[in-house]
Design goal:
- This protein is of the alpha/beta class and 396 residues long.
- Helix content is 49%, strand content 16%.
- It has two domains: 2-187, Rossmann fold (3-Layer(aba) Sandwich); 212-395, P-loop containing nucleotide triphosphate hydrolases (Rossmann fold, 3-Layer(aba) Sandwich).
- It has helices at residues 2-12, 38-54, 77-89, 103-113, 120-131, 135-149, 158-162, 170-210, 226-234, 277-286, 307-320, 344-357, 372-395; strands at 25-34, 57-67, 94-97, 116-119, 213-220, 251-255, 262-267, 295-301, 328-333, 361-363.
- Strand 6 and strand 7 form a beta hairpin.
- Helix 1 packs across helix 6, helix 5 (120-131) packs antiparallel against helix 6 (135-149) and helix 6 packs antiparallel against helix 8.
- The protein binds guanosine-5'-triphosphate (GTP) and magnesium ion.
């Protein structure tokens, strides 16, 4: 829990931003595989390894246990002993757990391993904290960190209780927890107030911008290639990198089409499976831009064997945001990677999926600029149709 303490002290001193992983640390990864979900296990491992890589953690070993139901100690006691031996042998600095731990589970594992325990949510929060650049982004992530911290504060003072326990030791510990809780609650209140202010000024700017223009938003799973396409279409230099959550804050640019109608395009945060609940609000706030879009371009990394699951994750979140009725064009990106050997089954899967989508789909490569002209034409058609709709409506 030392890092949580750091977050708290940081907010007290007004800095408000912390990296959980300052240097590259050696990690042991624990995975409880419920119901022996073999099909998704490889994908799950690949994704958490990517997250670890992005969070600058070196995974030295992975321990998976198949379980029928969740355990109080996350995995069974035999596997825990094995993990402890492994952690010692590999000189591990941190245990990464690929699920969100309850405060009790967190405390149990900390007491057992006596080294830092970082669950999936803490890892994602840390990546977000190091990525957030705008004032709003930083406030949103700070708020999520505080909300995550609050129920976990109790564990941090257990060392005082252990100094003998019983009378005379519990008092100061308990009081400190209460003080910490109050400080965190006060910070939460302050961040919420600051966020309201930022929101009002953003709404004013947006109202000015969306008037009279056709607004396109890029949405999609993290690492699908949204920023690369944004860069290509706007000729802007944005951050695109082979890391998860490169983009956190929505960026807006202009695109020029043949007709005179003004067109804006926004690049948004990538989606991820099992999004931590404390981050849902932050996501919804950054994605507010989508409500004002006339067209969503759903960018799919079709070279990823799990692209269908990734599409589902994105669509579920869009549903949550009440955006399921928005006009959407599926953009199958990274087709250049499909020429590699051994991709036949994947290509077959893509073709089957595309048949279901009929005309609302286009395959491109943003990196190799394949079919970009075609994408322009399709977008142009959407703009023309929407423009005609407006004219019909006005003259009726
Ligand atoms: N081979 C290939 N790589 C691509 C293509 N488009 C993007 N990439 C690579 O995929 C990685 C992720 O690209 P980004 O544009 O940062 O992806 P993103 O969707 O913005 O990611 P987040 O901001 O993390 O959600 C980068 O290494 C890109 O160079 C493509 O068409 N082909
Ligand atoms: Mg991006």
């Amino acid at each position: 829990m030392i890092w949580l303490k750091k977050v708290l002290i940081g907010f007290q001193s007004g800095k408000g931003k912390f990296n959980l992983m300052q240097k590259i640390e050696k990690a042991l990864l624990l995975i409880a595989n419920l119901n022996q979900d073999k099909k998704n296990l490889d994908y799950r491992i690949e994704e958490i390894l990517n997250l670890c890589d992005t969070g600058k953690v070196d995974v030295e070993g992975i321990i998976v246990q198949n379980l029928k139901k969740p355990q109080r100690s996350y995995i069974g006691s035999g596997k825990l002993q094995e993990s402890k031996r492994e952690a010692k042998a590999l000189k591990i600095d941190v245990i990464i757990v690929d699920d969100e731990l309850s405060p009790n589970q967190q405390k149990y594992l900390e007491d057992f391993f006596k080294i830092k325990i970082v669950d999936r949510t803490a890892l994602i929060l840390d990546i977000f904290a190091s990525r957030a650049k705008s004032k709003e982004g930083r406030l949103q992530v700070g708020l999520a960190q505080m909300q995550f911290l609050l129920p976990r504060l109790a564990g941090q003072w257990s060392h005082l209780e252990r100094l003998g326990g019983g009378i005379g030791t519990r008092g100061p510990g308990e009081t400190q927890i209460e003080t910490d809780r109050r400080l965190v609650r006060n910070s939460i209140k302050k961040i919420k107030k600051d966020l309201e202010k930022v929101k009002t000024s953003r709404n004013t700017q947006r109202n000015r911008r969306i008037k009279n223009s056709f607004n396109i938003s890029l949405v999609g799973y993290t690492n699908a290639g949204k920023s690369t396409l944004f860069e290509l279409l706007t000729k802007k230099n944005t951050l695109s990198s082979n890391m998860l959550f490169s983009t956190l804050d929505t960026r807006i640019g202009k695109v020029h089409f043949g007709n005179s109608k003004k067109c804006t395009i926004s690049d948004t945060v990538g989606f991820v499976d099992k999004l931590p609940t404390v981050l849902v609000d932050a996501f919804k706030a950054t994605l507010e831009e989508l409500k004002y879009s006339d067209l969503l371009l759903h960018i799919v990394d079709c070279s990823n064997p799990n692209f269908i699951r990734q599409i589902e994750v994105v669509n579920e979140l869009l549903d949550d945001l009440d955006l399921e009725k928005k006009e959407m064009l599926y953009v199958f990106n990274k087709i250049d990677k499909l020429n590699e050997n051994g991709n036949d089954t994947l290509v077959q899967k893509i073709n089957q999926f595309k048949e279901l989508l009929t005309d609302s789909c286009v395959s491109i490569s943003s990196k190799e600029t394949i079919n970009i002209e075609l994408l322009y034409q399709i977008i142009q058609k959407h703009i023309d149709t929407s423009y005609n709709r407006v004219i019909e409506y006005t003259f009726k």
